[in-house]
């Protein structure tokens, strides 16, 4: 066997083992995917904290989406924290405060998102605190669906499903599929206590989480990851309302997406190091398994990408060298022939096909259980073709940036 075949077999084994874990957990809990709306439930007061920095183009739509929520109007306490913006963000938010007494707007010196969140939490009137990104827009039923989970007193936080708002190009389409599939996987993880991030666009916490565990931390610019790991260390339960949708703007350019993912992955590395005790399988079980699986998956994706890139470059160099030998006689030159029958009868190809089918099932289940009707097949195709490459490139760049201690600048 070649090195490539060994790596491929091992990667497929890990992927299929993970898929079996996901599918068995899903089928075991499929009747609990959605909570039924209880019309008699006494929905509590919720303080929604919206930190913002230079969001004059988005803040009005975000606040309006909160005001439009299908939730008792007298149970909304909206807190907007302007983190030292130098545009018209504060003025646009202030207009809502003048028109609606449920909205309160505060301005502070720029200190980072986590400081704005902490200021907002300190001003919260409610025992439940929701964090909302200033470039995100809440579905009218999202908060209602999330609050139902708090009928269980053991639930300390509930997260939503983040969806890219109206993808307009291939890059946003890839993110659209990625976010939806991530929503399905997090729902499955929630059944086994395996959620390791509380996404910023929309999450709801019991206020006691911050009173007992402390405020948000800078956490390498990934405070939503760190707070989830801190909660897991304290054995706090985190639920996921898969049908509670929040729309966010996708990254429109490769550069924007690159730096976003660089920041996320650096934060993942450093937070995993800080919370390495959570990798103890004996003590943290499923959470540790999922964290270790992600680490192994990262390593394999990078190694296979580098190996395939090396083989491809070597092949191109050999072909160019051959062209020089034959003095660019294109009649003599021919590209390597691929046999369709051979491609479909090798064990690696067959197992790879099974892995792709598993990925398609993830996507299909994501579409069904997020009640999403807008997923395009072209986006799915581009996701399968491009995401493995993009993911490996992001991780290679992250390792390099981490090695030279270069931190991503993000406001």
Features:
single chain, 411 residues, alpha/beta, eight-stranded mixed sheet, 13 helices, 8 strands, 54% helix, globular
Secondary structure layout plus pairing:
Layout: H1 3-29, E1 46-52, H2 59-67, E2 76-83, H3 89-99, E3 103-108, H4 113-122, E4 128-132, E5 136-138, H5 142-147, E6 155-164, H6 170-191, E7 202-206, H7 208-213, H8 223-233, E8 237-248, H9 254-274, H10 281-325, H11 340-343, H12 347-369, H13 377-403
Parallel strand pairs: 1-2, 1-4, 2-3, 6-8
Antiparallel strand pairs: 4-7, 5-8, 6-7
Helix pairs in contact: 1-6, 1-10, 1-12, 6-12, 6-13, 9-13, 10-13
Can you walk through the features of this model?
The chain has one domain. 54% of the residues lie in helices and 14% in strands. It is built from 13 helices and 8 strands. It has helices at 3-29, 59-67, 89-99, 113-122, 142-147, 170-191, 208-213, 223-233, 254-274, 281-325, 340-343, 347-369, 377-403, and strands spanning 46-52, 76-83, 103-108, 128-132, 136-138, 155-164, 202-206, 237-248. The protein has an 8-stranded mixed sheet, sandwiched between helices.
